[in-house]
Specification:
about 260 residues, binds adenosine-5'-diphosphate, alpha/beta, eight-stranded mixed sheet, Carbamate kinase, two-stranded antiparallel ribbon, globular, 9 helices
Length: about 260
């Protein structure tokens, strides 16, 4: 029997959304899981999640500013993060799978094809693939260092129609909204100015590694390859729901390449 081909989306959720007072923000995670469960009716969904370092901090208090501390926290936190997802998806009778990738996995055609096939298999069997960067034993040269660029590479490699980045802001602003009250949200961008990619605005959260620049780099990577990215709020999922369920673009920034 021929099955209807679903649209494929990658959802990336950042530390800012998933971390609260050094533990997993359970309520927000549950809202995300509910969103994905509802999306599954119309879309194939791949989840890229941060939050392992913050989850690890609930088990052991190490210095996250030191490389080994961060790695040890990530190693302790990854199973905590995954078991939270597992029990929440179980409420919707959905199974999950863990895929840990590094930048290296995208260098070799053979390895890229391998994880593409693994993800295709999971989606075929209605399992939610949950991806994170495997930075535990890898060197800085082998890792992206942030999940924004990892998720863009995943979206491209898996031929996703859209990457949705859920962060702690409503979209991309003409200047940092935390510093400037008059910052204005940009609804649609068709290219990223070079200066914006070089800006080193820092992440908003002590555990975060991204910041806005890594999101712009992710958008730039995808747009140059003819793909789209939607950046919106992960605390309040209304903008994501409006866009994905109703096709209404109310809040959030759509990065869409020129035709
Ligand atoms: P996440 O953990 O979701 O990846 P980050 O903290 O890394 O989130 O990045 C989002 C933060 O980037 C925002 O909270 C905001 O403080 C900061 N930021 C800096 N410049 C801008 C801008 N022009 N538009 C939106 N956010 C910006």
């Amino acid at each position: 029997m021929a099955t209807k081909k679903l649209k494929r989306i990658v959802i990336k959720v950042g530390t800012a959304v998933l971390n609260e007072n050094n533990t997993i923000a359970k309520e927000r995670m549950m809202n995300l899981v509910t969103l994905i469960a509802n999306l599954k009716k119309t879309y194939d969904v791949i989840l890229v999640t941060s939050g392992a370092v913050a989850a690890g901090y609930s088990a052991l208090k190490l210095d996250k500013s030191k490389q080994i501390g961060r790695k040890a926290l990530a190693a302790a936190g990854q199973p905590i993060l995954m078991s939270s997802y597992k029990s929440m998806f179980a409420i919707y009778e959905m199974d999950t799978a863990q895929i840990l990738l590094t930048e290296d996995d995208f260098d070799s055609r053979k390895r890229t094809v391998m994880f593409q096939e693994i993800i295709d298999t999971h989606l075929e069997y209605d399992i939610v693939p949950i991806i994170n960067e495997n930075d535990i034993t890898s060197t800085p040269e082998q890792t992206f260092g942030d999940n924004d660029q990892l998720s863009a590479n995943v979206a491209y490699a898996t031929c996703a129609d859209l990457l949705v980045i859920l962060s702690d802001i409503d979209g991309y602003y003409d200047k940092n909204p935390r510093d400037f009250k008059d910052a204005k949200i940009i609804k649609e961008m068709t290219e990223i100015p070079k200066e914006a990619l070089a800006d080193d605005s820092t992440a908003n959260n002590a555990f975060a590694t991204g910041g806005i620049v890594t999101k712009l780099k992710a958008a730039d990577f995808l747009m140059k390859r003819g793909h789209q990215m939607f950046l919106c709020n992960g605390f309040d999922l209304t903008a994501a729901e409006d866009y994905l369920f109703k096709g209404e673009h109310n809040l959030g920034t759509l990065f869409k390449p020129k035709k």
